[in-house]
Design brief:
The complex is a heterodimer of chains A (about 180) and B (about 200).
Chain A: H1 2-6, H2 15-24, E1 35-38, E2 43-45, E3 48-49, E4 53-56, E5 59-73, E6 78-90, E7 93-95, E8 98-106, E9 111-113, E10 116-117, E11 121-123, E12 128-135, E13 165-167
Parallel strand pairs in A: 1-4, 2-5, 3-5, 4-5, 5-6, 6-7, 6-8, 7-9, 8-10, 8-11, 9-12, 10-12
Chain B: E1 12-15, H1 19-25, E2 32-36, H2 42-48, E3 53-57, H3 65-68, H4 75-86, E4 94-100, H5 108-118, E5 122-133, E6 143-149, E7 152-157, H6 170-176, E8 180-187, E9 192-199
Parallel strand pairs in B: 2-3, 2-4, 4-5
Antiparallel strand pairs in B: 1-7, 5-9, 6-7, 8-9
Classes of the chains: A mainly beta (about 180), B alpha/beta (about 200).
Chain lengths: ~180, ~200
């Protein structure tokens, strides 16, 4: 389901494509069955629950709870709602908390303001997110601190030859004294 | 609605010799609470996905406080605004605060306000990371940071115009941000100073 929809994200939604999405509402196959579509002209005030995948291209104010299914907020979707689903994919705008029992994906056109709980989370380049993410790799955390490589990979700040120099900073507050080692 | 173009898909990188030591000081056996003062970037999320943690993205580089500070807003009004922008749950106490160069985008009044606004979310073991400057003529580029690896930051150009900067030396910073003390610093080739900080709430 989601893979098929991603092809349309790079193109502006035309009336024809909107019609297509409506047409797809009764026949789009998905990983676990058909997907219901809330079209761009639809505004729902209230809660949504059930046992079917859902694509939202319209506007929803309320709650969306489809715990065993996929929910996708399309590029034209505007949602003011907490969303609970197995997989949540956001390409439109969402203000609300996301609880993805399997995965949450925010696409490059996605804009999310809320808190996310999910075992796996993907944020694509260009996506906008403000809020918190609860992450749990599923096992006790381990410190994975890689040692700095001796050979500078790509010092991006400025291509000056000088390497970073340790600075002995005084612990005393307000101290401005530096001890620079070398030039 | 049009969306801003995606940031460069090939971010530059910057090595850090200090950043890894933050994780040696933090108790990673319990759930970490991390404040990222800037925007959410894929590599930062990937990096922290190895930890059991709660990541808070404050998005302060696009916050109106950067415009408000140059107006007539009082310090108290700025404190109030920043707290509302944070919108953190009341029980939040950060173990790690990633300020990057944000503190240099705040003038003195706004930085004092920021210090007050963030105070409720600190604890005795909170650690921070930031960039300051050695001399006030050092400039900051319009860029945002992410974490590729503990010793490697990603750098991406920030979309939109750069806001005014108010570079802070270490001495100025600790005076205006008394909730933090500076533990360690590393002078970078461009005159910035990378610092690790400890909270003194």
């Amino acid at each position: 389901m989601f893979e098929k929809r991603t092809t349309s994200k790079t193109e502006p939604a035309s009336p024809q494509s909107k019609q297509d999405s409506f047409a797809a509402s009764s026949s789009t196959p998905s990983s676990s069955g058909r997907a219901a579509v809330i079209g761009p002209g639809i505004h729902i005030n209230g809660d949504i629950s059930g046992d079917e995948n859902l694509l939202v291209e319209g506007k929803v104010d309320g709650k969306i709870r489809l715990a065993s299914n996929h929910v996708e907020i399309g590029q034209s979707g505007r949602v003011n709602a907490d969303i609970t689903a197995k997989v949540i994919k956001i390409a439109g705008q969402v203000r609300g908390d996301l609880n993805g029992t399997e995965k949450v994906v925010i696409s490059r056109s996605g804009n999310v303001h809320g808190n996310i709980v999910a075992p796996r989370m993907t944020l694509e380049d260009g996506a906008i997110f403000k809020g918190s993410i609860d992450m749990d790799p599923g096992e006790p955390a381990q410190v994975k601190v890689a040692k700095p490589v001796k050979k500078p990979v790509e010092v991006a700040v400025e291509k000056t030859a000088a390497a970073p120099k340790p600075v002995a900073t005084d612990k005393a507050k307000g101290s401005s004294s530096y001890s620079l080692s070398g030039g | 609605m049009s969306y801003p173009p995606a940031a460069s898909s090939m971010p530059r990188t910057q090595q850090s010799l200090l950043f890894p030591s933050l994780f040696k000081r933090i108790d990673v056996d319990r759930r970490l609470s991390v404040l990222e003062i800037g925007a959410a970037l894929p590599e930062t999320i990937d990096f922290f996905s190895q930890y059991k943690c709660r990541l808070h993205f404050a998005g302060m580089f696009s916050d109106p406080v950067l415009q408000m500070q140059t107006g007539d807003a009082t310090e108290a009004e700025l404190v109030d605004h920043i707290r509302k922008s944070f919108d953190f749950p009341k029980k939040t106490r950060f173990d790690l605060c990633l300020f990057w160069d944000f503190l240099n985008y705040l003038d003195d009044k706004a930085l004092r306000a920021f210090n007050k606004a963030i105070a409720p979310y600190l604890h005795k073991k909170t650690r921070g990371h930031a960039f300051t400057v050695r001399t006030l003529d050092t400039s900051f580029s319009n860029q945002q940071y992410g974490i590729e690896q503990a010793h490697m930051f990603s750098i991406r150009p920030r979309t939109g115009m750069q806001e005014s900067t108010f570079p802070k030396t270490q001495a100025i910073l600790v005076n205006l941000l008394p909730n933090f003390d500076i533990d360690q610093g590393m002078l970078l080739p461009d005159g910035r100073l990378e610092v690790l900080m400890s909270a003194v709430p």
